[in-house]
Amino acid sequence: xxxxxxxxxxxxxxxxxxxxxxxxxxxxxxxxxxxxxxxxxxxxxxxxxxxxxxxxxxxxxxxxxxxxxxxxxxxxxxxxxxxxxxxxxxxxxxxxxxxxxxxxxxxxxxxxxxxxxxxxxxxxxxxxxxxxxxxxxxxxxxxxxxxxxxxxxxxxxxxxxxxxxxxxxxxxxxxxxxxxxxxxxxxxxxxxxxxxxxxxxxxxxxxxxxxxxxxxxxxxxxxxxxxxxxxxxxxxxxxxxxxxxxxxxxxxxxxxxxxxxxxxxxxxxxxxxxxxxxxxxxxxxxxxxxxxxxxxxxxxxxxxxxxxxxxxxxxxxxxxxxxxxxxxxxxxxxxxxxxxxxxxxxxxxxxxxxxxxxxxxxxxxxxxxxxxxxxxxxxxxxxxxxxxxxxxxxxxxxxxxxxxxxxxxxxxxxxxxxxxxxxxxxxxxxxxxxxxxxxxxxxxxxxxxxxxxxxxxxxxxxxxxxxxxxxxxxxxxxxxxxxxxxxxxxxxxxxxxxxxxxxxxxxxxxxxxxxxxxxxxxxxxxxxxxxxxxxxxxxxxxxxxxxxxxxxxxxxxxxxxxxxxxxxxxxxxxxxxxxxxxxxxxxxxxxxxxxxxxxxxxxxxxx
Length: 607
Prior knowledge:
alpha/beta; Arc Repressor Mutant, subunit A; four-stranded parallel beta sheet; 26 helices; 8 strands; transcription; BglG family transcriptional antiterminator; PTS_EIIB_2
């Protein structure tokens, strides 16, 4: 069997859209080029056993040539091999032990755990301190009872949050892709089963089948409001924990008549049918848990203050003046509002960033983790996936830049179609000037978005099949990923005619509700005000500062709804052209283009 590093090399080759160089592999894995070459000989034998040729060329690198269907089969085999290999590691044993305890009634002995994981009893005993440490991060207690064994104790929402984290953290890209497509496309022609504990597989299979039928019956609008993976995992956990006799909080049945949205009522009806298959009513707390709504007993967070405190703390620890970057505040505020603003339980988004972020940026990761522990309520569990996404905001603040030239229209495909698309956009566009990331989506919407936005290139964290060029990258694109994108972009610019400029670039924020529109206007208004305040502080009339803030907010609101002041109101005062030109430059940096009359009105707030 291949070793862990060799499995990682196989994964790189299967996912690569360009030639893989030994130097890049050596840098990523922290070993010498000679060691990588020895590993590649074993990898070549592995591919040969499967009738796949691994090509190589001096001063160029290694690559595969085989059809897409065979690549999918190899990825599935690799997925199984990775899990089998990882089960020998302590990290995976600790996760399996905790899953076993969370899905078992009563105490579980060390001997039983040793038999199931196929290690010695002494190995299990040595792992239990690490088990206790990981459980403690989620405010879950590990109880030890002599001659009885171990069990976990804690509030139900914390136990479920830990279980959700364990299930999601064990997944790889291939599994998420297959789990999603088996629902969205009912893609069941291949034998696929996620590497879940056998105790929860029956509930998972029930939910997966029900979701697949529901997806075919309902419009896609519902899937733009709900995260398929979170619903799939949480509904599975809910059914299993109810079977074990553990409800979320009380037994109040959900009143479907109180829901005004037709889409939500439809989804509630679906959930009722799923619970009835296990002879359970749909409880109000279970529904709110599954869709991520407000959880009782959790106090809401002041997101504005939290954002300011986190930026100030990380800036102090890093020695970087992040406070000067208003876009960091705007983007981080929006991200934290989405995750914590409703006081709910943030979902464990599938996110292979954790290990990469911790490895590549350990100091920044540690400082963000300190900030989260310091400023976020203990009632809300701080998970590494959550921290990684926040780290990305600070990384983007360092790397953000704008370039204007002929660009390849690009679609970004991520696990949920939400979340960090704007961050990835900034990272890729900053590294490759010829890329314009015009839209993002989940796996469900790829074909629709390609047609709608005249896409020329797809960047995806999943191995997907498409008639367009696809570059598969890590969720946080590394140097090798950017090089693959750069090569493909260069080829497209050389071989493919430019797309007719009849499509407007899409800002990577989906605006599908009045709440989201209002949030965008508020954030944009605040961003514009801060920019004006920073650039024109000396010219501002301090007595009119509050009035200026309100005026800018209303300006942005008028701009958004195309109701700017009429040009007939323009002033003949030519003495303030310089001020108006400076204001115009500031607003254009924020993506705002005001008419002359708007500028004439706002200059009265300045000296």
